[in-house]
Give the backbone structure.
Amino acid sequence: MTNQGFTIWFTGLSGSGKSTLATYLMPILKERGKNVEILDGDEVRENLSKGLGFSKEDRDTNIRRIGFVANMLARNNCVAITAAISPYREIRDEVRKKTQAAFVEVYVEASLDILEERDTKGLYKKARAGIIKNFTGVSDPYEAPEKPEVVVHTGTESIEQSAAKILAYLETKGLIAPKKVGAKV
Amino acid sequence: MTNQGFTIWFTGLSGSGKSTLATYLMPILKERGKNVEILDGDEVRENLSKGLGFSKEDRDTNIRRIGFVANMLARNNCVAITAAISPYREIRDEVRKKTQAAFVEVYVEASLDILEERDTKGLYKKARAGIIKNFTGVSDPYEAPEKPEVVVHTGTESIEQSAAKILAYLETKGLIAPKKVGAKV
């Protein structure tokens, strides 16, 4: 069981905590005996999608590439964690269908109000000012998943609470071994 | 030991037998307990590099992408077998340097005369007629590796002989377990 690969596909607005959650989960999953790889939106754009922009077509191409690599990892017993906004439902569902291993879609929900208030990277301000075009949630659509495997509310939950929900789901489905007695994670 | 990932990086002219050798090796390596993934030039172009052409710059980008994915697989205990022409030495060496696992470059050598004679896909004929541009070996350069880990001569060796050379190298380096007594592969 513990040798089984799968994909954790995070989706959510910019700044909602996808990469933070991915980075938080990685050592925990390794502790549980898994090989883990994070496919971060920015890293993938640099290495697999340089030249692509943020039009719907280019975003879709980028997401398909992430899905292609995640599937390769997952079918080889690795946990692939993706942390791209992936705003379009149809492409996420297309990737899910093509994946030859368990696919765990995690909707990282946080209200736009909270995210604009935080605005840790100043991106929302730039998007509102029109300096950044095609910004998801401001000038570009975000389509929330209809039936995600897990929903976390990062505007109101702590990272520990959100991570615990995801780990509980993975344990229930037999995708990871239960926490060892006395272990922290 | 047998859980260790690595990259087998085939390089050689079109039609030299890179994909054939990759496909031949895959079940043998699985039999020896490895997870194996083939990154075929054409498949990668379709899924990761659509829109790229065959200029030096575009070829280099394509090879870097293959290297990026192969490294992800190899560092997660998978065997990544790449089967793209990868004509430029500098980029192959760049990929080798970035790879965080053993890197086994296999030069699939066959003379242009033999390959043009065979021309199983009719590509050389089209390249000579100028119908296909930037064709490696005809209208585009091929830079053979200077210190490949293995050289196979597919113009004169059988596929079994070439595969045996590669497997012997992998065994010697402790990258795969030796053949079981009585096993065919």
Observations:
- Chain B touches chain A at residues 35, 37, 47-48, 50, 61, 64-65, 68-69, 72-73, 76-78 (CB under 8 Å).
- Chain B has one domain: 6-110+143-172.
